[in-house]
Design brief:
The protein has 424 residues and is α+β, with helices and mostly antiparallel strands. The protein has helices at 3-10, 17-38, 44-50, 67-78, 95-109, 113-140, 145-162, 166-179, 191-211, 227-230, 262-268, 301-304, 308-316, 329-332, 335-341, 381-396, 398-408, 413-417; strands at residues 57-58, 64-65, 278-285, 344-348, 356-363, 368-374. It has two domains: 3-251 and 380-417, 2-methylcitrate dehydratase PrpD, CATH 1.10.4100; 259-374, 2-methylcitrate dehydratase PrpD (60s Ribosomal Protein L30, Chain: A, 2-Layer Sandwich), CATH 3.30.1330. The protein contains 18 helices and six strands.
């Protein structure tokens, strides 16, 4: 069965309970990231420029728009801080493409929250499937998986919400094939989060157009001259989820910096050693990250987010790497951090996966301690919930975090969207 046939079949499948529970946690995380993104002053003009039509769908920061426009705004704002969830199987951020489409359309249709969660779960899982099917060549050549595979996930989620039949769902995926886009050249600019917003809007529009009777290629995703064939897709083998869903291995960010640093930071969290006792530190990481987040001497707060040495020293000196406010130009010049950073060596290790880090701490006494962490290490839903609640409390404050949490675990979709206000 080809990828398109699998997706069409998957759109109506029953959602596993554990997968839906993970989706609620990602909804909680995504909504907090979106609220913080709405507070970013550099996106204020973009957000205001989109307020061109009234509609039923809430947008972060206040106001209501039509479903497609709301999906665009919320997708962009929720990825503005790059603090949202990731899935390493396809190197993408699934929630920021799928959830904006689902929540905007669900509000328009007056859909129960449980149905929205199911649709989002299907969409996130589908985006990962398409990402795996497209493969690493697609990403390495320059396409942004969050935007490309994410658009197909958003489309399938929207198709489920609208109750499209098989033919309409196939057409929606075919229409998406003409719209899915996004290149890595935009990394480091405002257009990177815009890629997520465009993917979300594509999902809403493709599904609505298919519902209205618009047709498309029989297989615009995997057919001859389709999206995969023309976008360096590998057509890797994928299977529909049975007992194991890919969403269950989603990786949430608990540090407000590049995800390539997170395995190291999690490992260092167990160091339990005073910084002044450290003589040397060797950090081993997958070669991919050496050109992504290994700025040796960052000069700005933004550059700090992409520095193994600086963030490692911050952690060991007690700075909160989970707080967005920690990444300032001043901290880039902190003399104590710089002094400790000089003791750190970062080396590539091909034996490690992209989600692993191995650290050797040598103390002044000559004692050697080894620390290791893998972001793919299973985490219970309870532990993940606690870590996410702590993260969102740091972002939104205790009262707003608790209100959002209660809304997400409840049954009222409006209670969730009522929380789409800008962070104070």
């Amino acid at each position: 069965m080809g990828i398109t046939e699998q997706l069409v079949k998957f759109s109506t499948m029953e959602v596993a309970e554990e997968a839906a529970a993970m989706m609620r946690l990602s909804l909680f995380d995504w909504a907090a990231c979106g609220s913080m993104g709405a507070a970013e002053t550099e996106f204020a003009a973009f957000r205001q420029a989109q307020i061109i039509e009234d509609g039923p769908a809430h947008v972060f920061g206040g106001g209501e728009l039509g479903a497609a426009q709301a999906a665009l705004v919320n997708g962009t704002l929720s990825h503005a801080l790059d603090y949202d969830d990731t899935h390493f199987a396809h190197i993408g951020h699934p929630s920021v493409a799928v959830l904006p489409a689902v929540m905007a359309l669900a509000e328009t249709l007056d859909t129960p929250l449980s149905d929205a969660i199911d649709a989002a779960t299907i969409g996130v899982e589908a985006s990962i499937m398409v990402g795996v099917w497209l493969g690493r060549d697609h990403y390495q050549i320059g396409y942004h998986q969050t935007a490309t595979s994410g658009a197909f996930g958003a489309t399938l989620a929207a198709a489920r919400l609208l109750g499209l039949d098989k033919g309409q769902t196939r057409n929606a995926l075919g229409l998406c094939a003409s719209m899915a886009s996004g290149v890595k050249a935009q990394f480091g600019t405002m257009a990177k989060p815009l890629n997520a917003g465009l993917a979300a809007r594509t999902g809403v529009e493709a599904a609505l157009w298919a519902q209205a009777g618009m047709t498309a290629a029989e297989d615009g995703l995997a057919g001859p001259l389709g999206f995969g064939a023309t976008h360096h897709g590998e057509a890797a083998e994928v299977k529909l989820p049975r007992k194991e869903w890919q969403i269950n291995t989603i990786s949430h960010k608990f540090h407000a910096c590049c995800h390539g640093l997170h395995a190291m930071l999690e490992a260092l969290g167990g160091a339990n050693v005073e910084a002044e006792r450290i003589d040397a530190i060797k950090i081993r990481t997958h070669p991919r990250w050496m050109s992504v987040c290994n700025i040796a001497a960052p000069k700005t707060g933004l550059e700090v987010k992409f520095s193994y040495g600086h963030t490692a020293a911050m952690t060991l000196l007690g700075h909160a790497t989970g707080a967005i406010a920690s990444y300032t130009d001043e901290i880039a010049r902190d003399k104590d951090i710089i002094a400790l950073r000089e003791k750190i060596e970062v080396v590539e290790d091909e034996s490690l996966s992209e989600t692993q880090s191995l650290i050797t701490l040598t103390l002044e006494t000559g004692e050697v301690r080894r620390l290791r962490h893998d972001l793919m290490t299973p985490m219970t839903l309870e532990t993940r919930s606690e870590k996410l609640l702590a993260k969102v409390r740091a972002l939104l404050g205790d009262a707003r975090a608790v209100s959002l949490w209660q809304a997400v675990i409840g049954s009222d979709l409006d209670a969730v969207t009522d929380c789409f206000t800008a962070a104070e």
